[in-house]
Specification:
Number of strands: 0
Helix content: over 70%
Distance between the termini: 51 Å
Radius of gyration: 22 Å
Number of helices: 20
Bound molecules: tryptophan
Length: 492
Amino acid sequence: MEKDNKRGQWATNIGFLMAAVGSAIGLGNIWGFPYKMGANGGFIFLIIYLALVSFVGFATMLGELTLGRKYGMGVIGTYRKISKKYEWVGWLGWLSGFFILAFYSVLGGFTIRYFFGFLMELFSGGAGFGGMDSGAFFGSFIVSAPMNILFHALFMGATVLIVMGGISGGIEKFTSIAMPMLFVMMLIVVIRSVTLEGAFVGLEFMFKPDFEALKEIGLMRVLKTAAGQMFFSLSLGMGCMITYGSYLSKNENLEKNAMIIPIADTSFALLSALAVLPAVGAFIYQGVEGVSFGAGPGLLFVTLHRVFSVGMGGFMGNFFGAFFYFLVFIAAVTSAISLLEVCTAYFIDKRVEKGLEPNRKKITLIMGIIIFFLGFPVAMDGLGSGVAGGAMIDIPATVFGMSEVRVAFDCWLDFYDMISEGVFMPLGAMLMSLIIGWKLKTVLIKDEIEQTPGYKMKAYNFWDICFKFIVPAAMFFVLLGQLDDFFGLGIF
Ligand code: TRP
């Protein structure tokens, strides 16, 4: 396959789906979704989230995949082909890839560390986490720059190796094995979790419609959280799906694929919540100290570490600990490769356009090294612990002399996230949708979709309304929310 097209192509539609679903399912699902759902109104959050997937997620997915396949290029090439004056929209997406992967890989490194930790506990007993309890271990691990950089390097190395293998030979091959495995592993963890004594406490936290929380946080803010989470989780807004779509053949049904990916991702997010929250709830119920529904990095690393080591304890605890963090690692790698592919594709496209050999291996390696270094500040500031907290570096206390801006991010990770997920991505998605709806017109999407022999587009009017109005409005709203946070304007 890969021979007739120098850029590369998916060998099968199911292989493409594995890769795309693999991109979507990642830390966002396992880490972000459970606590955001719990903390933002439970069942109400879920309903809002599902509505957003339906009216914004599907259309944006369809738009990205279709533009990718139509123009057959990565994110920058695609926008340049639409019009020279939109090329910069592609650059926003491409740059986001660097920033997201830089922090994503540092966090991915954490999952490797924890996997090794439980593995060592399992076989040697007591050595995996230096004999420390979960909180103390996490605290000492995050401020250790050499350790963070070491595991960041391992994670990035794995990512680079897979992407070097190419579209069908690397990404498709790996995700075709990893994704079914991930799903089975997740089911096992869910079953273990919901059958723990007291699991209902977590289920209640998850599913109880919490109008009090909603009132306190405010509907607008909950909406913004849900929208940001959805975008990140579906890998939208930066051209990941444009890039993956560009390797699709005309035989594949875009409209169907654009529905399957979000449905699979959302189902997995729910499964993740069912794996994490009931386990946490069970040990709150059983009175294990230091276990709570608290949010952020603490949930995935401190709380769950405790759930396995103290709550379950013994062989079972270490076994499920190793099993779980391996699962999270696999989910994170299949996402990281899609981010690296966005960065890599630009140079491959350029070379192929000039009639040169793509040189995938070399370009991938160089991109990987750049992103590795870009991750250094994230790996060195102890997630905001700063020098005072024992880390190697601080994040500047003021930005261009504006100290209030610091309110929006208290570590380098937040800052990278803010640039990419906070600004570039909603802006990119808004512009893409406006370009499709008003400039190219939805008919163009229809034409491309109907390139699939014998296929007629099913929901033209729905997509048209999404592209023209709903997606741009939702994204404008998210952007406004970001600016509000960033400058502390107090709009929401
Ligand atoms: N979707 C992945 C997750 O949930 C992360 C990810 C991969 C991503 N590619 C992306 C996020 C592109 C935004 C854009 O963890």
